[in-house]
Amino acid sequence: MLNYLFDDAPEAGELREIVPGVLWLRMPLPMALDHINLYLLEDTDGWWLIDTGIAIGPTQALWEQVFERHLNGKPVKAVVSTHYHPDHTGMAGWLCERWQVPFYMTEAEYFTGLSFSRTTNEHFNWATERHLTRSGYTQDQILKSRKYFGGFGPYITPMPTSYRRMVDGGFLTINGNRWQVIIGRGHSPEHACLYNSGLNILISGDQVIPRITSNISVSGSEPEGNPLKEWLKSLEHFLEVLPGDTLVLPAHNTPFYGLHERLRYLIEHHEEHLLALEEACLCKQASAMELLPVMFKRKLDDHNLGLALGECIAHLNYLHHRGQIERTVDEDGCYRYASVDSTLPMRLRKQRHDADDAAPMQV
Known about the structure:
Elements: E1 3-4, E2 15-19, E3 22-28, E4 35-43, E5 46-50, H1 59-70, E6 76-80, H2 86-89, H3 92-99, E7 103-106, H4 107-117, H5 126-135, H6 139-148, E8 164-166, E9 171-174, E10 177-184, E11 191-196, E12 201-205, H7 227-241, E13 247-250, E14 256-257, H8 259-283, H9 288-295, H10 302-321, E15 325-329, E16 335-339, H11 344-358
Parallel strand pairs: 5-6, 6-7, 7-8, 12-13
Antiparallel strand pairs: 1-14, 2-3, 3-4, 4-5, 9-10, 10-11, 11-12, 13-14, 15-16
């Protein structure tokens, strides 16, 4: 069970103190997930901004409001992005130029962000089309994808042209406090979380979020990638190195206690998806597109379809790399997946039996 620090959240552009020197700021997002949490860390001579918000809508005006009302006469001295997604880097270029300050990021996130920020429609090529075909897209869906293909350049100000590299195990010293960089992978290539052992606070970005699960996807830029393996390994690592009573400051929803419970839930969530996909592939050879209902019960619109399919393929790649499902190419060029474990039905029955025995009685 998770315990939340607050029953509500600050209005967009307003700050709320977590502890002295650690402030929570919320910015709007123009999507179903309608907000991102940003954090300000006070130093002796200025402020560190952790993540930036997206570069559309009122974000810039809200930042100016923060600068006018809440910095107590101190300047911004550094900008940190936990990872390259546009809600976390969208205003980084503008903020660094506005204050003439350095930009902190991990190496893989910085260069991945540069690449995706400069991707345009003309980069849709044969490899992109082949990935969509392998995934189960129809020709009409591929044509539609080609029309709307592009990076996230429209959602960010140009990224800073230089950066200061954060590395796993390194520290940022802020107002005498040491914030350790702990790297997570899977949601993005080298996601930086910041942990302060003195305060027992983790700024988790998208690596640990309550209520919703981070997207773990395979895309056409790395179609044979295995991000779910990296994700599960990262969650296990966080279980090992972080205390269970850590206060988690996530990028979405609200700050909470219950880190270990949340990490275990996320691991179990993906293990259940893996088992369900393996079971679904027992009966027939299926495409990733055909297997989407196994993981997603709700109706998917065009925006969510790509994210959902990427997540489904991440699970299928994980099973394929482990040798638990085989993959063939049909006459249309689409991958077909089939389970190879003949003991799976027996294991499923045993798991369900054990779960029934362990379930509490309902009265």
